[in-house]
Amino acid sequence: MGLAMGKLMLGKIIVETPKHEVLHTGDGYEIRKYPPCVAAEVTYDPKEMKGDRDGGFQVLANYIGAFGKPQNTKPEAIAMTAPVITSSGGGEAEPIAMTAPVITSSEPEPVAMTVPVITAEGREEKAGKVTMQFLLPSKYAKAEEAPRPTDERVVLREVGERKYAVVTFGGLAGDKVVAEKAEGLKAALEKDGHAVTGPFVLSRYNPPWTLPPLRTNEVMFPVK
Questions:
Q1: Where do the domains of the chain lie, and which CATH numbers do they carry?
Q2: Which Gene3D superfamilies does the annotation name (predicted)?
């Protein structure tokens, strides 16, 4: 396990986090603009992962080589970024653009994991399924520039520029807490006259096994 993964486990984020422009600061939230990026994603049914909603994490971590030889065709190490993103609320959830440093070698090396990991519920109307994403470093401007996954479950897709309203919080990001944060953020946005354009996403800056007090999370709504 690399230094970056270890630091994320301990809650200290030493990897590159998403570059963005803060357009507005409201009561407990920010509205940010993120640039385009490339995402690696996997869609799965948590029931087939023994009920683990974060079951796609290992699949994507294997693609970038976070725990060993990367499962991509180069193979190439991609530097880890943060955070990991999970979306819910129905409809097609879109990830937030993130960046990360990149390490390239002719020998199999880990592709640095992007953080957040994005988990979207209901993408492409697949009831009960979850889509999790790692957003790749800015080195990869197009999907065809990124290392091709050898696991057919992993799909590369391009994510365009977008704006998100964001509220940050620590601790566990359970369904109840996330729903409360989302409800509060949406109410604040409506009060301030901002139009929400889709379901929220949950952005997590630490791997699933990080101790709750050390976690950083964000609930994000796409806005106009």
A1: 3-222 (3.20.80.10)
A2: Regulatory factor, effector binding domain (3.20.80.10)
